[in-house]
Backbone:
């Protein structure tokens, strides 16, 4: 065998064929005078066995875990080997001999986060990254197949979208203070007057003070905005999009979902239409389940978890009271105390993955609400301009991609959904 092939392909070959693979030593052990070297690459693992007759027997006995190697030999059946086949090792070239690899079975979660730059090599992390890859690709697929233009918005901004409490201030080059973006929404609302339907996938930043399983300080945010669309229309977009992504992962990442031990039964149910319940109904359900909550309260992770147990697929929670949502949400003309807003909650206890709804399109209504919320219209000067020049009904949403991957992959904590998480307690490595 001259050129190395992916391990996944090597395992498909017939026993007796010569094969060459390359990658990193996943496991190594001696049994008597035999050296067993399991090699890992991005597609999987394969065992190779070296005997004293093998040309590279001494290399196979001295090579260390995570050394980079090129292994060649003859393929043979062995039901005890991963994938049911192994390489009868002939040659093992050590490309980079690894120092003592610090990650062992018994290390703590915190240590694994401290060495995330090495822990990303694990089979679990590799599986999550492949699911993440599919989810991001399916999102782009759906938006582009449905007439949405991908746009890019600034990361340095001058105003809060989701409240000042979670703004990250940044000392700008001219010594002024600007902020890291919390959401590209306002820029998307400007761009619908050019492209009508737009989306962007970019980091958003929130100075979250609380340590929870679903909050990052830097998260990947897929946001969309569409002109001429109301609340019902944007909910249909959201359920089609999320269903397309889940279907894509079920089609392309069965192996990874299995490696993660993910029960995919609930994911198989994800298809439109998703149930829609009002905020009023949600409060009723929560009170009937004994939670101490009143109409007008915001819903936190605990309340959302209880609600998700009522459904076996994602569901919309719509019609939040004005005071629990940001200022830009349009008030329901027939019931001004509530807004034409909606969150999408993922089942199995995961909760909110999307926030969105219809925006206020009338200038006078928006100025009045900005003032009612104690904000300064001057801080929203250019955002208000959008209502002065041909305003249109429009709606949009923001999908937390890390929360989406956390749910689809069945992860316990959002930090396991992306390679280098940023939380209130971590900005290293
Ligand atoms: N274009 C829009 O309409 C988006 C809107 N301005 C917005 O930012 N809504 S949101 O605050 O609910 O955030 C949207 C989603 O963004 C996710 N999100 C929001 N904050 C976080 C944090 N801190 N960590 C991880 N994920 C987060 C979560 O899934 C939310 O549902
Ligand atoms: Mg939200």
Residues:
């Amino acid at each position: 065998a001259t050129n190395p092939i992916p391990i996944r392909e090597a395992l498909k070959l017939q026993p007796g064929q010569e094969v060459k693979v390359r990658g990193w030593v996943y496991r190594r052990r001696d049994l008597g005078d035999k050296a067993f070297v399991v090699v890992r690459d991005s597609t999987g693992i394969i065992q190779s066995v070296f005997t004293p007759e093998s040309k590279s027997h001494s290399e196979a006995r001295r090579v260390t875990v995570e050394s980079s190697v090129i292994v060649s030999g003859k393929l043979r059946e062995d039901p005890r080997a991963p994938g049911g086949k192994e390489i009868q090792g002939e040659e093992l070239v050590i490309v980079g001999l690894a120092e003592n690899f610090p990650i062992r079975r018994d290390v703590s979660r915190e240590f694994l986060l401290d060495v995330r730059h090495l822990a990303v090599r694990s089979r679990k992390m590799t599986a999550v990254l492949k699911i993440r890859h599919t989810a991001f690709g399916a999102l782009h697929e759906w938006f582009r197949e449905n007439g949405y233009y991908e746009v890019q918005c600034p990361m340095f901004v001058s105003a809060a979208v989701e409240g000042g409490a979670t703004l990250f201030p940044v000392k700008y080059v001219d010594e002024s203070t600007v902020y890291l973006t919390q959401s590209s929404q306002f820029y998307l609302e400007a761009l619908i007057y050019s492209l009508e339907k737009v989306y962007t996938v970019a980091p958003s930043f929130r100075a979250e003070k609380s340590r929870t399983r679903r909050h990052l300080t830097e998260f990947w945010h897929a946001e969309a905005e569409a002109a001429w669309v109301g609340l019902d229309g944007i909910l249909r977009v959201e359920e089609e999009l999320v269903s397309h992504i889940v279907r894509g992962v079920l089609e392309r990442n069965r192996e990874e979902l299995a490696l993660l031990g993910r029960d995919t039964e609930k994911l198989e149910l994800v298809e439109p239409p998703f149930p829609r319940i009002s905020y009023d109904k949600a409060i009723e359900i929560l009170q009937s389940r004994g939670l101490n909550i009143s109409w007008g309260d915001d819903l936190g992770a605990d309340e959302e978890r209880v609600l998700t147990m009522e459904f076996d697929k994602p569901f919309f929670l719509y019609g939040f009271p004005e005071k629990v949502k940001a200022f830009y949400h349009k008030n329901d003309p027939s019931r001004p105390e509530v807004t034409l807003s909606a969150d999408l909650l993922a089942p199995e206890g995961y909760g909110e993955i999307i926030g969105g709804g219809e925006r206020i399109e009338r200038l006078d209504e928006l100025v009045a609400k900005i003032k009612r919320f104690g904000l300064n219209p001057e801080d929203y000067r250019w955002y208000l301009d959008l209502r002065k020049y041909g305003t249109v009904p429009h709606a949009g949403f923001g999908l937390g991609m890390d929360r989406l991957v956390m749910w689809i992959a069945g992860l316990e904590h959002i930090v396991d959904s992306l390679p280098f998480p940023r939380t209130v307690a971590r900005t290293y490595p």
Q: What stands out?
A: The CA atoms of residues 153 and 184 lie 6 Å apart. Residues 123-145 form the longest helix (23 residues). The mean pLDDT is 97. The pocket of NSS (ligand 1) is lined by residues 161-162, 183, 185, 206, 208, 215-216, 219, 221, 223, 352-356, 396-398, 400, 402-403 (CB under 6 Å).
